[in-house]
Amino acid sequence: MQRRRLLTTAMVTTALALAGCAGQDADEPAATPASSAAGFPVTVGAVTLEARPEKIVSLSPTATEMLFAIGAGPQVTAVDDQSSYPADAPKSDLSGFKPNAEAIAAKDPDLVVVSNDTENIVAQLGKLSIPAFVAPAATTLEDTYAQLGDLGALTGHRAEAEKTGADMATRIDEIVKSVPARSRPLSYFYELGPDLYSATSKTFIGSIFAKFGMTNVADAADASGSFGGYPQLTQEAVVKANPDMIFLADSKCCQQSAATVTARSGWSTVTAVEKGQIYALDDDIASRWGPRTPDLVQAVADAVGKVPA
Amino acid sequence: MIDAVAPKQRARSAGLRPAWLVAGALAVLVATLAGLAFGSASLPPGGVAAEMLNLIPGVRLESGLTDREVAILMQLRLPRVVLGLLVGAMLALSGAAYQGAFRNPLADPHLLGVAAGAGLGVTAVIVLGAGSTTEVPVGVPMAAFVGAVTAVALTWLLGAAGSRDRTPAALILAGVAVSAFLSAAQTFLLQRHVESLQEVYSWLLGRLATAGWHDVLVILPYALVTGVIVLSRRRELDVLTVGDAEAASLGLHPQRSRYLLIIAASLGTAAAVSVSGLIGFVGIIVPHTIRLLTGPSYRSLLPLSVLFGAAFLTLTDLLARTVAGDAEIPIGVVTAFLGAPFFVLVMRTSRAVPT
């Protein structure tokens, strides 16, 4: 269960706010030259660190993955209760959903990373002189690379962060190139929950599928963007749109599978159901915008590769 | 105000007029047809009509609809319309029954804490893994029922029992307190089990969005039991309105009737809630509008609540699934937009209600 999808389902407005502020720090100037430990003091966005942080608390599963990917793992002393990867991340009962400033302060961190400023946590921590960096949900891969760079600068792992981002980009390009082009674009329905919340092309997830030239059946439900890219579709709309493929990002949270989708009444005429083109994704990987995104791209590529041209 | 001094004669004279019954049946018919005719998929009206006539045994018309259009109509739209009819009928009937049993015009499943209790019950079974809102047909409705009855009992004890001079507001305030408490318990449970959060939320926001024949089959028996019990007691409700002493003098066991009605109404509400999520205010909007139109007798109020409640929710659901094009608006949001102002109206016009 990831906070991003939770927010989407529970409070579409919050997702809208997240999407709205995503990318705001994409153009932060790199303040200092790129020699790791010597790069301090460093300023990224609103956060200035005098020295390399040695006790980092991450309240965002994506940030946790990023920190470990860029070699800042040893500096991380606690992560939130939803950070499930990597396995050796120091999981705690801290909540990124309902962050508790006192509980965070008890870990005596010199940097806190959050994915959004719910409950005014940044200001609360500010009163305790604990720097908090907001790494909001990405809406494009560029946001992800920028966020990796920001975390690299803040933790003294600038070079590794750049390499992680570059490796991601290379791998994604290779995967996308490995899938042959089609004469007719495949359409897909991306399911966030059994209540048919979906993500349009304007979201991070949508941008991944766009790389394969696929068309998103949810786009019509949020043409104006008033649902922040996360509309709840009617069953009729999905069946009518007749997607070629269905991707399930609710296999872990809500036990949805090719079998449960096939069993839904009225869905039997949908091409994806008829032809068995229903793919369960790993909820966690699919709802994070971090270094495992190439695994998601690979999963999509594998699924697309199985569909006869 | 409902009849504080209702003489028996008046209740008797205000029996069910056939004209209103016809109007109610027409409303159901119109709502059903509208519900079938419109949706995010635009289906040719002639084809829809032909498919509907084909449901009559022996009729075999060529509708010209594709297989997919037939699936949309028969597997998605029709069950949703039927479910809306059932849920609306049950919520309106339960609201009317509560109002009679409590002698309180503001009583509504939502405001008595019944919905919150059902919500807590459902959350508990989902969190404990004992039931799933998408599968098991028994665990969730039963948990909703236990939660609903517990909540209404609490509300009653806190707000109405043991005192002769309580105002209608006391019961509703007790309902508010019980709702708040049960919602807090629900939140507490969810915080311990974040992994169930999405499933519970998606249920809370209303499941008519994913309605299928399965849901209809799940609640049909509960709807029948509730309907039979409450409708068969409609005369008793009129007597209860007059007063317990009077009821007893007529050979009625007022408390026993009251318990039975409350339990039946809670069963109906719980079943509705377990498939539809928390849809508020139907139980107050519908019975009150009917009271304004046909008078206070429960003999006409209850059957008409069934008909107009069914029509009302089906039309509300039509609104919820069409105003935003391919996207859904939670139906609870629509009923609250309509119901909250209505509640204030009822509150302001029912000063002299009996307690």
TrEMBL record, chain A:
The keyword Nuclease does not apply. PROSITE patterns: FE_B12_PBP (PS50983), PROKAR_LIPOPROTEIN (PS51257). Keywords: Signal. SUPFAM superfamilies: Helical backbone' metal receptor. Residues 55-309 form the Fe/B12 periplasmic-binding domain. InterPro entries: ABC_Transporter_SBP, ABC_transptr_periplasmic_BD, Vit_B12_bind_prot. Residues 1-19 form the signal peptide. GO terms for biological process: cellular response to iron ion. PANTHER family: MOLYBDATE-BINDING PROTEIN MOLA, VITAMIN B12-BINDING PROTEIN. Belongs to the bacterial solute-binding protein 8 family. This is Putative iron ABC transporter substrate-binding protein. It comes from Actinoplanes missouriensis (strain ATCC 14538 / DSM 43046 / CBS 188.64 / JCM 3121 / NBRC 102363 / NCIMB 12654 / NRRL B-3342 / UNCC 431).
UniProtKB/TrEMBL annotation, chain B:
It is a multi-pass membrane protein. Keywords: Cell membrane, Membrane, Transmembrane, Transmembrane helix, Transport. InterPro entries: ABC_BtuC-like, ABC_transptr_permease_BtuC. It is found in: Cell membrane. GO terms for biological process: siderophore-iron import into cell. The keyword Ligase does not apply. It comes from the Bacteria. The chain crosses the membrane at residues 20-43, 81-98, 110-132, 138-158, 170-191, 211-231, 259-286, 298-320, 327-347. The keyword Amino-acid biosynthesis does not apply. GO terms for molecular function: transmembrane transporter activity. This is Putative FecCD-family membrane transport protein.
